[in-house]
Structure prediction request, 376 residues.
Amino acid sequence: MKVLQILDQAFRTVVEEQDETILWLIQCMQKKVELNDIDQIQLLLTGQAVYYTQQQKQQPPLKIGDWVQTQPANINKDIGNLISSHIPVYVVYEDLWDRGLEMEALREGIQVVNREHLASLFEQADQIWHW
Amino acid sequence: MSEFLFIQSRDPFTDALTKSQYELINHLANAGNRVTVVLVQNGVMPATKSSIFTPFTKLLHENITLVADKFSLQQREIDAEQLIPEILTTDLDIVIKALLSGQKVIWN
Amino acid sequence: MSHIKTLTFAFMDPPFESERTVTFFRLLDAALDANSHVKVFAYEGAAALSFAKQQQHGNAIHGRDTEQEDHPLTKTWIASLQQKARKKALSFEWINCGLCVDERGVNDTIPGCNRGGPADLWRYASESFNTLTIGTR
Prediction:
C-alpha cells in the first residue's frame, strides 16, 4: 500500500505538542511500514506547510508566567528524520513561489513538484490522506 | 487512469488554498481521470447560480461530476433550483460507495 | 461475513468546535447503512469524542431545562453507531490515540472505545478496503 500524506498547515500544535503532529504521526507509522517491502509512505508539503522545507532552527521556547518551555519543537529534525527514513518528501513549487520562499533554502532530499504535475503524484498513490 | 472523489468542505471565499484545490481537480480531469467532487459544509457556497467565483466554474468539466450535500444545502436554505444546473444534490452515501468501490477519496 | 468490506476513518476534531465533526459522524452512519465494517482512529481533539463524562445541560436562553434541551453529545452518537452496528452484525471499532487522551485527561471513555497509537492507524488501514482521513484546521 502506497499512501501519499498531504500536509498543508504549518505551526499548528508545534508549541503545545512540541512537534508537528502529522510529521510525528508519520514517523510513528513508518516504523510499521519498514517491516515489509510492500508499503510506502510519501509526504507532500503544500500550502503553509511549505515553510517546513526552510526550517533550520529549533522553535523558540514559549514563556507563560514563570513557566518556560524546555523542549520546543524541532521541525528541521523531524523533516530530516523522514528523509533519512527514505520517505519521499515533495513540496509544491508554486506554494513556495507565492510565499517568496527561496529554492536555495530547501534542504537536501526534498523534491520540488509543479502544481500541474501533482496529478501524476496523486495517480501513483493507492491512497491519499489529506491532514 | 484512476477514479477520485474529493469531499470539498473548504470554500474559496475564506480559504485561499481552495483555488489550488480546484486547479488540482482540473488537472486530474484533464489527465483523463474520472473525478467526483462532493461539496459539503461551506464548500457548497460557490455552487449557487448567483455566486461569482470563476475558478469554481472551471470544475464544470466533462470528466468531473459535481454534487452538493443535501444536508449542507438545507442548513444554508439553498434550494436545488438555486444551484448551477450541472450540480445535482446528494446524500453522503456517495462517499461511502466511492470508498467501497476502491476510488481514491480525499477530504479537502 | 467475509464479503463485507471494512472502512477506516481517521479524524482529528474535538466534539463541539467544528462542522467537520458532524460530517464525520454522518459518514460513519452512512458506512453502516452501506453494510461496511467500520474502524475509527481518533487523533488529537477527536480523542475527547468518546469521553464518558460529557454531560447534557439546560439552556436558559432557549428556555429549556436539561431534559428539554436534550443537548447532543458525541459519546451518545458513538454509542448509537455501536448499537446500529450490533443490530446489523457489523463491527465498529474505535481507537483513541493514547497520548492525546492523556494530554486532555479524557481517559474515561464509553465502552467499546479503546486506547492505542499511530501504529494502530496503519494496522487499521492495512486491514481495511479503503481509508479516509479528515484533518483539522
Remarks:
- Chain A touches chain C at residues 1, 3, 9, 12-13, 21-22, 24-25, 28-29, 31-33, 39, 127, 129-131 (CB under 8 Å).
- The longest strand of chain A covers residues 2-7.
- Helices of chain A lie at 21-33, 75-84, 93-98, 118-124.
- Chain A has a mean pLDDT of 96.
